[in-house]
Design goal:
The protein is an alpha+beta fold. The chain folds into 2 domains: 280 residues, Distorted Sandwich (Beta-galactosidase, Chain A, domain 5), CATH 2.70.98.10; 261 residues, TIM Barrel. It is built from 12 helices and 39 strands. The longest helix is centred in the middle third of the chain and has 16 residues.
Length: 655
């Protein structure tokens, strides 16, 4: 307590020179935000990490609100607010948040709210007037870091139209001052000294464009796609794209809560995978009964190019192939089978009609007899254009949900579309897996029927990348960066595992960088309540022991910890389901020996089953060992990971 009071006192002393200032601190006193005439500053353990940063809403009628604006009233919470958050299907089944708030009122319409918890700070604007349209010409959000430092950043992959892409870029590790000419998308994570990091994110994004970031010197500045003025469609999939933008970013009707700008602060990197701010700041669930939402694993045909072998029919988009995948799912306890692109004609954009070779109703019925449910792939706007009819038809048919793809933008109308689809799907008890989409901002809390979310350079890229792309390093970065935002549909499970020097792109028969044990570990190191088995049933049946190991994993967890790791180098995650624990790790192309202290997971005796890299996995990336041991108390366990390797340990409590 003395340390907390000392930190707050030092921050207040630093702030005393401002003409107008309000200060709000986290309950533990380590994070403080000072809002003054020239902007806001953020302090961590008494040291400034952001100074004179700008936050301002600029309206088309000339009004502006935020830092530098006259404050007519301010309100600071007298004691921390305590919130208990139920989080079905999230990395924690439930968790608590304690925070303080500061509300700055500018006039009768507009205000700014600060939220400061022990995990970071956030602000949002609240404004507009009921029944009145407001045009937002721009939003200024300049994060002025005190020092140049290392940052992890993910730049747009489309130099020609930087706001239009799949949001599957590759994280760069660089100094802030080495910023690119391209904008980046969230998150942006910056070192603030002593191994601590400040990560810029956003939450509760609705009816407003998503945030990009541009780096100049030591300042990270927000950018936004303009409001769409006109559209066209790509003929191959009838995907909607923007041809012209307005000179403003948003058009808002009535009073609105604008998105949270999140400044997550982590004392150490292992705090990052379990930072809950994006989820906690999102609007609570609009679905009162979530019993129909079922996390699960799915058989999937697109990644492996319908690659069955040794079957008495021609594999492809036909009933025999899909029945085979369904049989495989049923035999291995998989809950789902995904019909990806091809079951309907993409160029027609008609989700209500299948191709002649596919009878969706017959497949749904066939699957139901085997305790498997069907998912259907579609393009975002194609579903949206026939939303009510499609949800009604396929819900009544017994379809489990939609894998929705190719949004590839985050302007206001794109954001509105994903919320419209989530709401309608929820009414018809349909789940959603969002692909080709901007980073998640908490929609899985508001609509927990959104059970997965891409926005990640995942396994599908193995079909076309070269060996210059370092996937094991990315796999060791995602838990610290991408997972701060929410679920990540990486689609692991590839079984053609090779060393880096053996890798090449093979579209129809993909190879996978790294070891088979790393592929198994990815089912645990990433948050993914709806996950694919991306490879062909033929390969899984050829290695039934690996298949059994994967399929026996829980679909949902109660608690998540990060036990060890360093961004882009390695990670060790632990998840609890009931009384049992599951521990997994991956490494980059450096082989690694770790001594992991499992005693932190609890008392009692546990039976241990391990999936490990084989002794020769540096030579043969498919090499692996599965072992079991007698029940004993948890202590330190030594694990070796090969180059591009991994491990997964199941700890079954002996009751």
């Amino acid at each position: 307590m003395k340390r907390t009071l000392s930190i707050i006192a030092s921050v207040l002393a630093l702030c005393s020179c401002a003409k107008v200032q309000d200060t709000v601190c986290s309950p533990d006193g380590r994070i403080c935000v000072k809002v003054g005439d020239e902007g806001y500053s953020v302090y961590y353990d008494g040291n400034a990490v952001l100074e004179n940063s700008v936050a301002q809403m600029q309206l088309a009628d000339g009004r502006a609100y935020g830092t530098g604006s006259k404050v007519v009233a301010s309100k600071l919470t007298k004691t921390p607010v305590h919130e208990h958050i139920a989080a079905p299907f999230y990395r924690q089944a439930e968790f608590d948040m304690d925070y303080n708030t500061l509300t700055l009122k500018f006039d009768d319409e507009w205000s700014m709210i600060w939220y400061v918890c022990d995990e970071g700070a956030a602000y949002r604007f609240v404004g507009g007037k009921d029944g009145v349209e407001t045009i937002v010409s721009n939003e200024l959000a300049d994060f002025n870091f005190v020092n140049d430092s290392d940052c992890w950043i993910n730049y747009s992959s489309n130099p020609r139209k930087p706001y239009a892409m799949a949001f599957e870029g590759v994280y760069e590790h660089q100094m802030l001052s080495d910023g690119s000419e391209l904008p980046a998308f969230m998150p942006v994570s910056v070192g603030i000294g002593g191994g601590s990091r400040l990560t810029i994110l956003e939450s509760d994004l609705k009816a407003y464009p998503g945030m990009f970031a541009r780096v100049s010197g030591t300042t990270v500045s927000a950018e936004f796609a303009g409001y769409p003025a006109s559209f066209d469609k790509y003929p191959s999939r009838q995907q909607l794209y923007v041809t012209e933008h307005e000179d403003y970013i948003a058009k808002v009707c009535g009073k609105m809560n604008f998105p949270w700008r999140v400044l997550a602060i982590s004392e150490k990197e292992t705090d990052m995978p379990v930072n809950n701010m994006v989820y906690a700041l999102a609007e609570p669930s609009k679905i009162s009964d979530t019993s129909w939402i079922k996390p699960g694993f799915a058989a999937w045909e697109w990644w492996n190019d319908w690659g069955l072998t040794g079957v008495p029919f021609k594999p492809g988009i036909n009933m025999e192939t899909y029945r085979y995948y369904i049989d495989f799912a049923s035999a291995n306890g998989l809950e789902y089978m995904v019909l990806d692109e091809g079951w309907s004609t993409p160029s027609k954009g008609d989700i209500l009609t299948s191709i002649d070779e596919i009878d969706v109703k017959a497949l749904v019925d066939y699957a139901a007899q085997r305790n498997v449910k069907i998912w259907l792939w579609t393009v975002f706007n194609c579903l949206d254009e026939k939303l009510e009819d499609a949800c009604k038809k396929y819900s009544e048919m017994g379809v489990a949900g939609f894998k929705v793809d190719f949004l590839d933008r985050n302007d206001q109308t794109a954001v509105e579309m994903i919320w419209r689809i989530a709401e309608c799907a929820a009414r018809y008890h349909l789940m959603l897996d969002y692909h080709g989409i901007f980073p998640p901002t908490g929609i899985c809390r508001t609509y927990p029927n959104v059970v997965n979310y891409e926005s990640i350079h995942g396994e599908e890229n193995m079909k076309w990348i070269t060996s210059e792309m370092d996937m094991p390093a990315l796999n060791a970065a995602y838990p610290f960066l991408r997972m701060m935002e929410g679920y990540a549909d990486y689609t692991p499970g590839g079984l053609q595992n090779v060393r880096r020097d053996q890798f090449t792109d093979v579209y129809s028969n993909p190879l996978v960088q790294g070891t088979r044990a790393q592929q198994v570990a990815l089912y645990l190191t990433l948050d993914s309540p709806f996950s694919m088995l991306c490879d062909t049933p033929s390969r899984y049946m050829a290695d039934q022991a690996t298949t059994d190991f994967i399929c026996s994993l829980p679909r949902n967890y109660d608690k998540t910890l990060c036990l060890d790791g360093k961004i882009g180098e390695y990670v060790v995650m632990a998840r609890k389901a009931g009384d049992d624990w599951y521990v997994a790790g991956t490494t980059n192309w450096d082989s690694r020996e770790l001594s992991i202290d499992l005693s932190v997971l609890g008392d009692g005796e546990y039976e241990m089953e391990c999936y490990l890299d084989g002794e020769d996995a540096d030579i043969d990336a498919c090499s692996h060992v599965i072992s079991k041991s007698e029940a004993k108390k948890l202590g330190k366990v030594d694990v070796r990971m090969a180059q591009g390797g991994g491990f997964l340990i199941k700890l079954k409590k002996n009751n």
